[in-house]
Amino acid sequence: MNAPAQFVRTVADLLADPHTAPGVTKANRQQLAYGMPGIALLHVERAIAGLGPWQRVHDWLSAAARQPFTSGPDSHPFYGAPALAHAVACAAEHLPGPYQRALDRLDRQMEADVRGRLAAAHERMDDGGLARISEFDTIRGLTGYGAHLLRRDPASALVRSVLEYLVRLTSPVTCDGESLPGWWTATGPSGRVNDRFPGGHGNSGLAHGIAGPLALLSLAALRGTVVPGQYGAIRTILTWLDRWRQDTSDGTVWPYWVTRAELREDLLTSSAPRRPSWCYGTAGLTRAQQLAALVLKDARRQAAAERALLRSLSEGTQLKATNDKGLCHGFAGLAHVAVRASADAGPSNSRRLRAVVPALVDEICPAVGDPVAAARAIVRDGTTGPGFLDGAAGVALALQTCVTAVPPQSAWDACLLIA
After folding, report:
1. What element of type H or E holds 6?
2. What angle separates helix 392-404 from helix 347-364, to the nearest 10 degrees?
3. What is the secondary structure of 375-407 as a DSSP string?
4. Residue 178 host element (H or E)
5. 167 with 227: CB under 8 angstroms?
6. pLDDT score of 271
7. Number of H helices, E strands in the chain
8. Cα–Cα dist 123/129, whole Å
9. pLDDT tens per residue across span 224-243
């Protein structure tokens, strides 16, 4: 067994029992990012591949569901009932008997929540107000809900309703006499009013910005679900990203966000190196643009996105700015995006993207080191924890894909909107 495979198996074994696994707390029980639903995803993927027992899946989902999960306005795709629904859906598609009834109940609740959120969003737009990040983003908003719905039933009326909302989101809005993009928010990136962002900001990221809607609109089109204005909305977002693209000595980069002052001056003021992460950086942004290019059959744009991704993962200050191992903004996320993007890339770029993956994996589990010790260290890391988005379970899931060279069989990464 090679070192990465040993690493993944050790992580799974250390996280075998929800009652004894290090770092698991009741406070994070409902969190997809940090808690039990996210850890369950690792065991689902391994069980489907015949590398682990289904009993571990059952144990984690049972422990998670032992108490009621939050639903309604206090929940979102990464917290509460929707987070559990994602994990249960991954299991139910391969072992429907024990999980289908629970999934049906969770889906009904989620559908009601989405309808309520859509109604509120359209009312806000009718009134001419600015969006909140949590209204539309991948982690907390309608884009994240749309990712789940698209996976469950791509042709459903509710998926189309979410897409229609995202199309409308790309229409400009007038505020204080200025024309702003429809996804402009009055707050800082945290979702709270911030003196550093007078006049708000336009967020670019895949996790919290407009790249998330771009990815969902594109993935839906690639699955055959298209609503009026969808292609135009995709082009509108691409035009915005083109406007703020920076071609530097370290490759092509995009700002994490644009401030009101930068929008007025049409000039970015920050030039600090940015890590090429899934959540905000070049990796997530180029994957979203690659998907859009596939929809538009724009070979030139596709190749440019692939080259930008490749350079960010293989040289320069972008890669040097990466300093952790997780999915969200670390090496595991970079490796997983590279694998997913390589599957859709042109032949030359596909080969080159696959070729950078071993070096990214080596940053997590060095070939010359002890994979068991590395796995123990990441599971017991008190900063990142054992969870999905930043911690051990997510790292192991990404490495599982790299080790087997097989796309995720459980679609665990659907919530990341990269496939």
Report:
1. helix 3-14
2. 140
3. HHHHHT-TTT-SSSSSSHHHHHHHHHHHHHT--
4. strand 178-180
5. yes
6. 62
7. 18, 6
8. 9
9. 999 999 999 999 999 999 99
